[in-house]
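Input record (one chain):
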Amino acid sequence: MKKDIKHKILVYGVNPVAELVNSGATNITRIYMQDSSDKPILQQIRSYAQKHSIGVNSVSNKYIKNLVGDVAHQGVVALLRSFEYVEFNKWVESLDMSTNPAVLLLDEVQDPHNVGAMIRSAAAFGLSGVILPSHRQSPVTNAVFKSSAGTVMHIPVIKIGNVNQMLKKLKEMGFWIVGIHQDGHTKISEQKFDSPTVLIVGNEGYGIRQKTLEMCDFTVQIPMSSEIESLNAAVSTGIACYEWSRQQ
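The corresponding structure, as predicted from the sequence alone:
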């Protein structure tokens, strides 16, 4: 594998790559396709690439496997220069506060497959963005693209340095901060989501950090059977995003 490929993002799989090219992404540098692939959607991807002067290489299955490893690549890989995060201040300026927007904050979620699934839920239920801290948090990676099924290209993803400073800013703008926590004070179905909202989901093991919890206006829990101790972080996120959407 060439050295320049090792330090770029590789998006693999038919749906993620199709979503990527259909989003009008400008950071695609090359697409690799298995030379024996004849699926119609792959031909659509090839046509889009040609239209936008993106190079397409027909390669062997072995070549693709060397690029992305032993994953379900489905015969297609797109090479990106980098993932384009949205700058926080620009994202803030784009918000229409009269629509009661919601944003998802991931507080040190480290499994990229969970991150991708969370981004997918946020996009599916109409949230206005997903915020990722720059420390102890999985960034947008190849696996995040795959598990989000390409929806990472359809919702602003914002990377920030200081979580508490960012939350203070959003509070000043009128956002309420709601933490999803197994010991939350209110059942999520009883929480009113009638104002701009930050939904916070914490680490897979230890949950939301104490400093972040102290910034929350409310903490909510998802009721479960007494036989089950907790839900997967991505599942909790999907439920929380659905409940917010249901109340809009």
